[in-house]
Amino acid sequence: MASPRSDFGALVRAWRDRLAPADAGFAVTDGRRAPGLRREELAQLAGLSVDYVLRLEQGRAKNPSAQVVGALARALQLSRTERDQLFRSAGLLPPRDGMISAHVPAGIQRLAARLGDVPIGVFSADWTLVWWNTMWSAVFGDAAVVPPAERNLARALFGNGLAHAAMLPVQSERGPDVFEASIVADLKDAVSRYPGDAQLDRLVQELRGVSDAFAQHWATQTTAARHTTDRKTIRHPEIGDIQLDCDVLIVPGADLRMVTYTAATGSSDAGKLDLLRVAGVHTAIALPERETARGSWGAPGM
Fold first, then answer.
1. Which first-to-last residue range defines the signal peptide (predicted)?
2. Alpha-carbon distance values, 271 to 114, 117, 159 (Å)
3. Which CATH fold topology does 106-293 show?
């Protein structure tokens, strides 16, 4: 009888073979032999090392964390039922109902992958970045270099850790105060809808303790408009300022926000996006505490 760990590896391998590369945003070439994703492609999508994915598939890596299993489930574009099966095969309880979900439906991932010319990031209800495409990395840097718990926009705006250090300078046309207030308003709304989510509660309590600005926005009785659209100026260290239209699209039924950045056809900013697309230029950022990595991660602005 197969052990749960071997079941886990077999599931990952089977679902990797099932996923069409084009649906995950990868070009299909004539010399490609694998029917589905290559191991290195899955590792890239999940933000893991190729060696770790290999050891997971072979059953040599034991006790993957919930974050790792969740990242693999998103990368493999699993349904909720399949995601829960993967969690159980890893000896973990699946995410409970009534908690903020980081699950990105396969259809949303396929849609985003087909819009490869547009920088796209998908955020959960607490503004944690859970999925991004290649152009997002080209504009903001690879979010995989930042620990998963730090890929949170509120932490980037108001915290004092790696998330804050990794953010590029971005200016909002509406001004920093209006933008910050809108993000806090989104978190207030999330707290009202997910009162039992301990991770969300910890995030709010943490930011109230380290940021006077967050505490003031949280305490205000004025209801701020939720963040939906804006015009941003991104200061890219390689190609200079890029002015882009930022739109936040709500995914019905999934409580996700798909953030897109676009420029008018023929504009100089569109030309800069084309340059990033062709050259694959990434930002370079120095993280504190001797953690240095090539790449940053993007956010809807500040």
1. none
2. 20, 12, 34
3. Beta-Lactamase (3.30.450)
129: helix, strand or coil:
strand
* Tens of pLDDT, residues 229-250: 889 999 988 889 999 999 999 8
Q: Which residues contact 238 (CB under 8 A, 6 or more apart)?
A: 281, 283
Q: Would you list the domain boundaries of the chain? A: 4-89, 106-293
Residue 101 has phi, psi (to 5 degrees) of: -105, 140
Instruction: Provide the token pair at 236.
Output: 């890219």
Say if strands 170-172 and 256-262 run parallel, antiparallel, or are unpaired: unpaired
Give the other-Cβ count within 10 Å of 165's Cβ: 18
- Give the burial string for 223-246 (b: 16+ CB within 10 Å, else e): ebeebeebebebebeebeebbbeb
Q: What is the DSSP letter of 152?
A: B
Helix (H) or strand (E) holding 42: helix 39-46
Name the stretches of the chain with pLDDT < 50: 1-3, 283-297, 299-302
Cβ neighbours of residue 222 under 8 Å, at least 6 residues apart?
A: none
CA–CA gap between residue 22 and residue 19 (Å, rounded)? 9
Considering the segment(s) 4-89 as one domain, its CATH architecture is Orthogonal Bundle (1.10)
Tokens at 149, concatenated? 């718990």
Query: Is-same-fold flag (4-89; 106-293)?
Result: no
* pLDDT (0 to 100) of residue 1: 41
Q: What is the pLDDT of residue 291?
A: 36
Secondary element (H or E) of residue 245: strand 240-251
Q: pTM for this structure? A: 0.77
